[in-house]
Amino acid sequence: MTHFKVLRGNFLKSFSTPKVATPVDKPIVAARLPSYQNLEGSKTYMWCACGASKTQPFCDNSHTCSSIKPLAFTPEKTKPRWLCQCKQTKDPPYCDGTHLDVEIQIAVEGQPL
To answer: Is the overall model pTM greater than 0.85, yes or no?
Structure first.
């Protein structure tokens, strides 16, 4: 919410209240550790990118996010992989170790950073 001051008939922007991050702005940290999943080759999975899913790390369509969409991915081979649950990876949907950052380790699960 923005507040205004009136000065001699002109509106001057005086200050803005800080915007609270929501899942629409930033993904929710679903967990501070990755999830070890046995993925089947040639099968398409939907990875939850917003963090709101109750079936992490996969999307259950419970997201209310408008700007963050699930990521469809198909592994080439059947093999186990670590899937990101902190939602900060640079290699989605796979874990890249970002969860080891202090910021993630002190984050509150279920809240955006």
So the answer is: no
Question: How is residue 66 written in tokens?
Answer: 């408008």
Question: DSSP readout, 46-105?
Answer: EE-SSS--SSTTB--S----SS---EEE--SS-EEEEE-SSS--SSTTB--SGGGSHHHH
Q: Is the dihedral of CA 30, 27, 16, 1 positive or negative?
A: negative
Q: Give Cα 67 to chain centroid, integer Å.
A: 11
pLDDT at 8: 47
Q: Are 109 and 32 in contact (CB under 8 A)?
A: yes
